[in-house]
Amino acid sequence: MTTAPATTRTPRLTFGGVLRSEWIKLRSLRSTFWCYVILIVLTVGLSALVAVALPTDGSIGPGGGDPNAPVDPTAEPTPAGATWLTISTIGVGFAQLVIMVLGALVITGEYGTGMIRSTFAAVPRRLPAIAAKALVFGAVTFVVSGVALVASTLLSLVILQGRDVDLDAGEPAVWWGILGAIGYLTLLGVLSLAIGTILRSSAAAIATSLGLVLVVPTIFSILGAVLQTTWPSNVTALLPSGAGGQMYAYEPVAAFENDILTLDAGLGLLVLAAWVVVAGAVAALLVTRRDA
To answer: Is 73 part of a structural domain of the chain?
Structure first.
């Protein structure tokens, strides 16, 4: 009597398994926890601080502010919803720095420790590993920034209403702006991750990402002032921070007046998404062609 030889089943690599492994790696990093904590604290804390300190002298309207305060009849009152949105998103400028640093570290940390070799050994085709990393990081960033911005919006609403500012809690323009701010932080984080994949160095990736958001727009602003021309302003509008900033502006309108370009929220989203797609395509090409 003969027996059939035992067969061993080779585990099949699935994209779901790659996603789970990237989720484990992301939540096991100490920098992940602290960066997200800092993002929440800055976003909510700054919003509450500004809501408490904001003078309500009749410049917020209609129906906002102290009715006994003197009002300049020639001045247009700031819509109360616009003020509320500005206060709710006041921390985005700082949160974007935190999320871009984290986005760079998520990938460059693996290159720095050599863990990327193990990752690519487990996922020989490489691209699924990078795609899974971007999806997991983007999803977590969307959720965390969403929690932070919704909390800051509700807290500032309570504070401002307590100071007799007349607000519509369900104003669509405000909540669309909050959604835009969440998307802006998410896309910036993924863009930084792509830059980190291209450069493979934490210092270089962080410097490049922050320089793209902080330094490059300043350079073009100075050029516009020195040269007395409008094209630097138009270039700035197409940079990640310029285009993304329109995603959480209060009812932005696309226009091209006096040779100056202005984007609305939809165009801002498309431009920022194009930055992410181009950087991601370059990163994907280099990952498949370079040694780990």
So the answer is: no
Whether residue 2 lies inside any domain: the answer is no
Alpha-carbon torsion 278, 214, 104, 100, what sign? Answer: negative
The average pLDDT across 37-60 equals: 85
Q: Which domain holds residue 24?
A: 15-62+81-289
| Tally of domains within the chain | 1
Give the β-pairing of 255-257 and 260-262. Answer: antiparallel
- The reply to whether the predicted model has a pTM over 0.90 is no
Bridge partners, 261 (sequence order) = 256
The verdict on residue 134 lying in a domain is yes
Residue type, 87: I
Where would I find the H helices in the chain?
15-28, 30-53, 80-88, 92-113, 115-122, 127-162, 172-199, 202-210, 216-227, 231-237, 240-245, 265-289
State the angle between helix axes of 92-113 and 115-122 in degrees (0 to 180), rounded to the nearest 10: 80
Q: Please give the residue that has the higher pLDDT: either 111 or 191.
A: 191
Residue in 27, 160, 159 with CA at minimum distance from that of residue 106: 27
Per this entry, what is the length of the chain?
Answer: 292
Q: What is the pLDDT of residues 64-80, one digit of tens each?
A: 444 344 444 444 557 88
In a domain, 69, yes or no: no
Angle at 216 between CA 222 and CA 111, to 5 degrees: 160
Instruction: Give the pLDDT confidence of 76-131 residue by residue, as tens digits.
Output: 557 889 999 999 999 999 999 999 999 999 999 998 888 889 888 888 888 999 99
Contact 101, 206 (CB under 8 A): yes
